[in-house]
Design brief:
42% of the residues lie in helices and 13% in strands. The protein has a 3-stranded antiparallel sheet with strand order 1-5-4, with no helix packed on it. Among the domains are: 55-155, Winged helix-like DNA-binding domain superfamily/Winged helix DNA-binding domain (Arc Repressor Mutant, subunit A, Orthogonal Bundle), CATH 1.10.10.10; 167-231 and 245-254, Winged helix-like DNA-binding domain superfamily/Winged helix DNA-binding domain (Arc Repressor Mutant, subunit A). By secondary structure, the chain is of the alpha+beta class.
């Protein structure tokens, strides 16, 4: 109980700090630089709002049997699709993250696993859900994650209405929180996503934070990098397995 009250007090202090923080925006100086690099066009606001939607036409989730879905793939890809689907199905309604799937299928590369997940997600054989992180569940286990409206089914988020649309007033709050995340990255270039999760745990679910980071990266504000970190010291010179790579997602400011 004491620990809970202490965490609550710390969260209140952070909220008060954000409310009274002076970001000194007037001190930011932009220096034009000549170059031949072609700037990518920024996404439109309408596209950003549409990207927050996670809707499916009613009755399409799991409408095609998994065995029938596999008929359009060559024989050499069937083993990968079945293996990934089996790991997700064994995880039940809780779902499996990309890391958990990769650890279960050590003989497959992460690139191939991501391809299989995208193929099954596009065909609504698996759905992307989650609160603590992005998790995949099979269509048969998605009932506790998906809400059903009159015309469509949708994954619920804080900015979602009862019809699956985006509530614009809530999106304004999302953009305000996104600004706070951005300035946290600017003040600490190279910080990890886990650091940001801990910093904003009092206000944001980890899954919502990841969605905001993806939106910031899509707008060209930040860059999400995956770095390969090797252990500095071996427990034993005979345990070569300890040399395997440890992956960490790093958020780098593009400034």
């Amino acid at each position: 109980m004491h620990l809970y009250l202490q965490q609550l007090a710390n969260a209140t202090k952070r909220l008060r700090y954000l409310e009274s923080a002076d970001l000194h925006l007037e001190k930011i100086v932009l220096t034009p630089v000549k170059g031949s690099r072609t700037e990518e066009s920024l996404p439109r606001l309408e596209d950003l709002i549409d990207s927050l939607k996670r809707t499916f036409p009613k009755g399409t989730i799991g409408a095609v049997r998994f065995d029938d879905f596999l008929l359009k793939y060559p024989l050499k890809q069937l083993s990968l699709l079945r293996s990934v689907h089996r790991v997700i199905a064994d995880s039940g309604m809780f779902g499996a993250s990309l890391r958990e799937i990769t650890e279960s299928l050590q003989n497959e590369t992460e690139e191939n696993i991501i391809w299989a997940l995208n193929e099954m997600e596009n065909a609504t054989q698996v759905l992307l859900v989650g609160v603590d992180c992005r998790r995949y569940v099979t269509a048969s286990q998605a009932d506790c994650w998906i809400m059903h409206g009159e015309s469509c089914s949708f994954f619920s988020a804080p900015w979602t209405t009862l019809t699956g649309d985006v509530h614009l007033s809530t999106v304004r709050w999302v953009f305000w929180m996104m600004e706070g995340v951005l300035f946290s990255i600017v003040s600490r270039p190279g910080c990890t996503i886990n650091d940001l999760k801990g910093r904003f745990a009092f206000a944001l679910q980890p899954r919502m934070l990841l969605d905001m980071l993806n939106t910031l990266e899509r707008c060209g504000c930040v860059r999400i990098c995956c770095m390969n970190v090797r252990p500095l010291r071996l427990r034993s010179p005979f345990e070569l397995g300890l040399l395997r790579s440890l992956f960490m997602r790093i958020v780098l400011s593009s400034f």
